[in-house]
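Let us practice reading a record.
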Amino acid sequence: MENLSETTPYSFTVPTRNEVAPDNQALFDNLQKALGFVPNLYATIGYSEHGLSRYLAYQNAKSSLSNREKEAVNLVVSQINGCVYCQSAHTVLGKMNGFTDEQILDLRRGQSDNPKLNALVELAAEITETRGNASPDKVGSFLAQGYTKGHLVDVILQVSEKTAMNYLHNLTQIPVDFPLAPALS
C-alpha cells in the first residue's frame, strides 16, 4: 500500500497529549493508566474534540457477544477491510482471549473449527463484504447455532465499530504500534 503522504497533499501524524483538547488529554491519561500506552489509532481519534469519548463509549458498551466473539468479528472484519493496524492489534487481543496463532489466522480467513464461532465469523465476513446484505443462508446458519436476533444486532454493531477503525487507519496510515500480524498465505 502506498504511503498516504506520497499520494495526497496531506498526511497524518499521531497527535501527542498536548496537541489534543483537554477532555481528550484526560482520556489519554486513562488509556495510559489502563494499557500502559495510548495506542496510535486511539490517539489519532483525538484530532476530533469529541470523537475519542464517543468511540470509547461505543466500543465499551454492553453487548450480548462475549469478548472472544467480539475478537473473532474484529479479526475477520479487519482482514476483509485490509487494515493491518487492526489485524495486528486484534491478533494481540485474540491471544489475550485464548485464541492460538492458528485459530487467529483461521478467524482472519473467515473460518473456525468451532461450528458456533464459524457461523459467527462467516456471517460477520458476509455482512462486511456485502455492506449489510448477508444471505438468508448465512443468517439462518448463525441462528441455528443458538444465536438470537439480539446477537445479530450486536454482530452488526461490532462490524460497524471495527469498520470505523479500519477506515480511520486505512485513510491515515499512522504507524502500527503492535507487533505486525503475519500476512495470510
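A brief commentary: The chain has two domains: 15-59, 67-172.
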